[in-house]
Amino acid sequence: MTKFVVSRLFKAVITVWFIVSLVFVCTRMSGDPTLWILPDDAPEAARIELRESLGLDRPVTAQYVSYFADALRGDMGCSYKYLRPVNEVFAESAWATVSLGVLAFSLAILLGVLLGVMAAVHRNSPLDRITMSATIAGYTVPNFVFGILLIFLFSLKLRMLPSGGNSTAAHYIMPTLTLMMGPMANIARLTRSSMLDVLRQDYLECARSKGVPEIVVIFKHSLRNALIPVVTIIGLQMGIIIGGSVVVETVFAWPGIGSLIVNAAKTRDFPMLQYGILIIAAAVTLTNTMVDLSYAFLDPRIRDNF
Amino acid sequence: MQAILHVNNLKTYYYAGNRVVPAVDGVSFTLSRGEVLGIVGESGCGKSTVARSVTGLFDRSYTRIEGGEVLFDGMDLTRQSAKTLNRIRGKKISMIFQNPLTSLNPVYTVADQITEVLLLHEGMNRRQARERALELLTMVGIPEPKARLDDFPHQLSGGMQQRVLIAIALACNPQLVIADEPTTALDVTIQAQILRLMDNIRTQFDMGMLLITHNMGVVAEMCDRVLVMYGGVVVEEADPLQLFDAPLHPYTRGLLAAIPSIEAQKETLYTIPGTVPRFSHPVTCCRFADRCPHCAGHCRTQEPPLFRTGDGRGVRCWNYLSEKEEPSQ
After folding, report:
1. Which of A258-267, A276-285, B254-263 is least confident?
2. Domain count of chain A?
3. B196 vs B232: CA distance, rounded Å
4. Where does the pLDDT of residue B329 fall: very low under 50, low under 70, confident under 90, or very high at 90 and above?
5. B247, B207, B205: which is closest to B226 by C-alpha?
6. Inter-chain contact B97–A205, Cβ cutoff 8 Å?
7. A205 lies in some domain
8. What is the pTM of this model?
9. Which chain A residue is nearest to residue B167, measuring alpha carbons?
10. Residue A55 lies in a domain
11. CATH number at residue A262
């Protein structure tokens, strides 16, 4: 078990390193940030001086080595725009993104699993058909379209909900809905099909023959077995939520990490962009590692192989 | 002997589109304490449906009990609520299933699955239930029972898994155990062990047992009385000795002839010609007519009743009647 955890964490570190390197190379190929930082009519001498002070005049390999050397010491660089260490800037926005992400992710799992179970138990009923049709809409409509539709309906027409910012609980409603829609639909569909498989199993008949009430048969005896394949895609949904938060934060003017990354990309703020991608890559790989570990928790047959 | 289960004219039908399949079409029997009643027949004859109708374990979306009664403990089980049935299942009537590997839940330990019944029905706390589970595992002959408690089903052999299922079935000292092909999925030596275990338990606990099987060997070994089922009805009722000695129904004769024998040097085994027909309700002929070597005129126009022979046997065949009326033939 320990060996498995260590090896998974090692692989996670390699993945994150690879992604950050890729972003590093891409940013260096994307163009000159001084074009954004200095006004258009700034003299060439000022640009050269700024490039020197940012270290961008050195060969890319040298920049790469010193970036990782600094990173290992905990120095992630300074934002070109905010002129402060990037981790400080991100720390200020972290809560907005994490609270939204965790809320959307938890609701997507809870409601997705619940809807999937209900649909499977009442297979071919109106409830099943309505839920499954809705889930098709849920994962085919892109989140920026869905978000804009919500703003149009609830902010412009009905004037019920605020369209941007994160100051009150009401501000959370539409971004959360937009962010959770796709993952919830995916989880609901897979839970349904996985439950349908499990509901045919002999061990449920055995449980019923023991006098176990039907609700316990479904939520104790069936669900734990049905969740094993669902857990795989829950890991993938985490990636969708994090990626989606970049879009959703832009649509709803949400002051979070996603907005920072989008702005950093627009203004060629290399250290900001690199750090943002680093956090996202780390979060996704960490979730996937945790998903792999939760298999072992759910399925004793996998536990033996560790 | 004290009767514990009366099944009277039980009818359980399946509904598939427009078709009504009479899976069980008027089955009656009585089972007493300490008695083993066998139900034999080939796949699809309705024997498992009888078992599931008694315990109410069938898919209500396409199955309905259309008539008859299942009297147990002073009540008709076909008319009880799900809640009442849950109090009876596992406590007074328990079941042993065909495939032990798939009948145990793969994600819970042996202890979890045995204690579940005890916690539900016996009002024990976890510690008492675990102790009782240990006793039960010892009783069903599992070596190192203490270590096995925290094993998962996949860590046990097929024979051990079936012993665990038997332990679950016996946990609350039920009055009636329904065993649905309990040895079919096991290899021959393990089959013998499991049959011996079930026989010991039956005498030790004085419970009634309904044994569903397609194996005539199991019938000979275990049963006090046998029902032979075909196409949803009982075609012959007898005790095993009578049945093996002098089968009355052509179907039973066919079944017995199909058993391979060590003495007979035959290249091919005897098979009953034809396949099991699919019946639709209502049936207006002898269900075996198409495959019967003695099929005569009214076999195809009227279904024979179960004729009682006077010595406790029954046979559902027109020929029995004509043989009795014309003993010279």
Report:
1. B254-263
2. 1
3. 30
4. very low
5. B247
6. yes
7. yes
8. 0.82
9. A210
10. no
11. 1.10.3720.10
